[in-house]
C-alpha cells in the first residue's frame, strides 16, 4: 500500500513559451483519488502536467506534495530503443530503487515481447511499455498526458485496470485524456481557469523563441 500525501495545488498560474495559459487553479488530489483533466486543444493540460512534474516553474501559486511522489508519463514514452522490453523495465526499476518487474509485464501483456528491442515495437506496444514503466517507479501519484494514444481497446482496458488497481492501493492519478476511461474520477475543466486575456496579449513574441 502507498501512503502518499495529498497533492495540493493552490491559486496556480502557469505559462508556456512565456505566455500565461492558466491562472487561479486550485485543487486537491487525495490518496486513492483520480482527477481527469479536460479541455480543448491548447487549453493548457500539458502545461499544467509539466508544471506539476517539475519540468517547468509556475508563474505563481503553490504546489505541495509533488516532489518525490510523482511519476510522469508525457507524450514521449521515454524508452531506450536499443534495450529490450525487459531491460527497459529493469533499467527504470533500478533508477527508482524497485525490484520486481513481473507485475508490470503482466499488467500490459508484455511477456510475449519481453526480449524484443523497444525500438522495434509498434506504436501501441511502445505505449504499453511506457505505461508499464509507471508500475516499476513505486511512485504513488501518476501524472499522465494522453496515456491512451495509440492503444487499442484491449490495451485501453489494461490501462484502466492498472489505474484502478493503483488507486485501490492508495495511489492517485491525474490524467489528461479526451476519452472516457470508465474511472470513478473527478473532472477538472481546464478552460475554466484560462489566463486573463490582457496578460496573454501582453506577452511578447520573443517569448516563443
Ligand atoms: N513549446 C511551446 N512554445 C510556446 N507555446 C507553446 C508550446 N507548446 C504549447 N504551447 C502553447 O501553450 C498553450 C497550451 O498548450 P498545451 O500543450 O498545454 O495545451 P493542451 O491542453 O495540452 O492541448 P492538446 O489537447 O492539444 O494537447 C497553447 O496555446 C499552445 O499553443
Could you describe the 3D structure shown?
The C terminus is likely disordered. The strands form two sheets. A five-stranded parallel beta sheet has the order 5-6-7-3-8, sandwiched between helices. A three-stranded antiparallel beta sheet has the order 2-1-4. Helices cover 29% and strands 23% of the residues. It has a single domain, classed as 3-Layer(aba) Sandwich (Rossmann fold). The protein has six helices and eight strands. The chain is globular. A hairpin with a 2-residue loop joins strand 1 and strand 2. It is of the alpha/beta class and 209 residues long. Bound molecules: adenosine-5'-triphosphate. Adenosine-5'-triphosphate (ATP) binds next to helix 1. The site of adenosine-5'-triphosphate (ATP) has 12 residues, from helix 1. Pfam families: ABC_tran. This is Heme ABC exporter ATP-binding protein CcmA.
Helices and strands, with pairings:
Layout: E1 7-16, E2 19-29, E3 34-38, H1 45-52, E4 60-64, E5 70-73, H2 85-95, H3 102-107, H4 123-135, E6 141-145, H5 153-168, E7 172-176, E8 186-189, H6 197-202
Parallel strand pairs: 3-7, 3-8, 5-6, 6-7
Antiparallel strand pairs: 1-2, 1-4
This protein binds adenosine-5'-triphosphate.
Identify every distinct bound molecule in the structure, by name, code or SMILES.
adenosine-5'-triphosphate
Integer average pLDDT: 92
What is the distance, rounded to the nearest whole angstrom, between the alpha carbons of the first and last residues?
45 Å
Q: So how many helices?
A: 6
Number of spatially distinct domains: 1
CATH superfamily: P-loop containing nucleotide triphosphate hydrolases
Q: Show unreliable segments.
A: 205-209
Strand content: 15-25%
The secondary-structure element order is EEEHEEHHHEHEEH
Report the principal-axis shape.
globular
What is the name of the CATH architecture? Answer: 3-Layer(aba) Sandwich
Helix coverage percent: 25-40%
CATH top level class name:
Alpha Beta
The biggest sheet amounts to: 5 strands, parallel
| Cα radius of gyration in angstroms | 18 Å
Q: Work out the oligomeric state of the chains in this entry.
A: single chain
